[in-house]
Amino acid sequence: MSELGGGARGLAAPAAAGARDASFALRFGWLAVMGAVFFSSYGFANWLAARRAVVPTFAFGWEHAIPFVPWTIVPYWSIDLLYALSFFFWTRRDDLLDQVKRLLTVQLISVACFIAWPLRFGFERPDAGGVAGALFTLLMGFDKPFNQAPSLHIGLLVVLWAVYAKHLRGTLARAALHLWFAAIGVSVLTTYQHHVIDVPTGAAVGCLALFLFPLRDAAGRLPGADAARSMAPSAASRALARRYALGAGAVALVALACIAHAAGWALAAGWGALALACVGWIYWRGVPGAFQKDADGRFPPFMLWLLAPTIAGAFVNSRAWTFRRPAPARLGERVSIGRTPTTRELRRHGFTGVVDLTAEMPRWAAADAACAYATAPQLDLVAPTARQLQQAVAALERLHGEGRDVLVCCALGYGRSVLCAAAWVA
Fold first, then answer.
1. 330 sits in which H/E element
2. Rounded Cα gap, residues 330 and 326, in angstroms
3. Domain limits at 22?
4. Could you report the per-residue pLDDT of 83-102, keeping only the tens digit for each?
5. Cys-Cys link to 286, which of 167, 227, 237, 238 (CB 3.0-4.6 A)?
6. What is the DSSP string of 2-15?
7. Residue tagged active-site, from 113, 207, 410, 420
8. pTM of the predicted model over 0.85
9. Could you give the number of structural domains in the chain?
10. Same domain, 337 and 192
11. Which residues of the chain, if any, have pLDDT below 50?
């Protein structure tokens, strides 16, 4: 992970929304509150599981090959310090409250899952001596072999990784950061605290928290704020949201049906259901900026993971519909419309400018100094607002005015790009 951010809520908030300072007392107070919430809710779920006569375990057979590495209890424990310090990065109150909401979201979803379907760790942990042994003894003083999936440790790790990556600068410092956080991720397995199934499910919860409660930029703006509008979503957007919700529900039922007999397929189906639900939420809000596609056409790493099934589906759909007519259509001097291009396609046709209107997919073409890139994200199958159309036309006018051969692209090259080009001609 690197600089992460993004989200689906309140994207029209002005930059001044977080102008009020977060005092040290407020930051410390929220740390105390969240610490109490953490230990009380986590302990309650452990207590409920311990009262059950039988608590099942869920592990793949090959997990017996995962070694027990005692010293990795050190990075495992370090997340507690990182958790506490994360409250003191924020100088604006809104930023601090966003962090509280992210952590609370991970906590509540994870604990709800622990209570709904309790699991226990199924392997015998070998004895450890020295400092590692003392740390394991301290851990077992409040932890039990329950509270497995989704891993709360991993969910919090994803959120904290995003926060620390946003604030830390310097190549060496960031490299050390990523190595240490990766070690924390591995440690949940090598300390025999979690089974493999707990890791992707925990990561999904962390990504969801970042999606719902985004990281702001230095000016306090939320991702996509410039493109977001306060107007109500259109009827078409809401109708598509309902379709995505139905699809998510159907795929979730498939995931539930597969759990007992095909755990891998259950994970894949659950991933797809979550991605569909997130896209449905974006359409319900009617905010293309909620995909968090940046000015360079890239998605934050956590969004790439969270929406990988729908991103892949959108790309395959793009290629399937345009299989027989992949070439862009020339409209006039130095202006063409077409599907979202790859690097090879851009070079084949010699374009020196791209106006990308897709919101649901990242940029597929590699960055090229000879080819200027502009993005004006719009929701697929939804008529753009006047402001979105103005942004797209302005981007086309700017690149065309620079003497570039411009491709205006969307998923297929049939809808959004046609509207933009027509508005530009008019």
1. strand 329-332
2. 13
3. 15-212
4. 999 999 999 999 999 999 99
5. 237
6. -S----SS-TT--G
7. 410
8. yes
9. 3
10. no
11. 1-18
